[in-house]
Amino acid sequence: MAAPAQLGLQNAASPIMEELIAFHDHALMIIFLISSLVLYIISLMLTTKLTHTSTMNAQEIEMIWTILPAMILIMIALPSLRILYMTDEFNKPYLTLKAIGHQWYWSYEYSDYEDLAFDSYIMPTYFLEPGEFRLLEVDNRTTLPMEADIRVLISSQDVLHSWAVPSLGVKTDAIPGRLNQAMVASMRPGLYYGQCSEICGSNHSFMPIVLEFIYFQDFEVWASYLYIV
Amino acid sequence: MASEVLAKPQMRGLLARRLRIHMVGAFLVSLGVAALYKFAVAEPRKKAYADFYKNYSPEKDFEEMKKAGIFRSIK
Q1: Mitochondrion as a keyword (chain B) (predicted)?
Q2: Which of A33, A191, A212 sits opposite B33 (nearest CB)?
Q3: What is the ipTM of this complex?
Q4: Gap from B6 CA to chain A (nearest CA, Å)
């Protein structure tokens, strides 16, 4: 989850998110390059009385400021497409989870297991235990095995929602009548928080997502007995 | 008394000279900013991730979290 006043991306818990963070750094570096160049040139233009009013053609500079931006765009596009195709790889998922958006909660179904399904509502503030996070905790967390590829099928029962978990690099729209597929994998155990990311009514900000990643042996025990505290 | 003749001042090409100097300067500054971001932020971040995972033990992390009572799914 985000720390107070955090500006940057959350720490990555999946390889895809690490790639996305590196790409974000790359793109931001290019943004700073272009912005500092433009700022320098603007300050240059504002600090001189010298003018040139008879320019007729400028073939050389036109070539430069066409080719250079094209090269910069290619430098951005190549890693971007690489990660795009990486996020679309589906390598024999260990488990399939269905995440269905409702107004205003998520419901999860583990169809690989018999009758394993539950709703996940926000934990109201007055029910929070000390140390728990306001507007982020839920009554029933989504337990998943770590170090395993998990296919998440996302849809909605009513209006548009979006299932997002920033530290895993996933944000997929939940569209009624449509099944969207996302892959989720965590390299570490722990809790990963997310929030609905598509405006869906009055309680759009109050339908969070909490993923609890544990060892798959413990996950199988949980799935068998459905320990929900 | 012989009057001294001052050197003829530069009268043309002032803007062109200024642009020549500052175009180089602009590119150097912008490349410098980009290099600063890359080597002060991006590369240290990659190194921090590599260092974190070099000696990371998921089992140890898991046991610590379990002991702290973070997980609801494990008794």
Answers
A1: yes
A2: A33
A3: 0.87
A4: 23
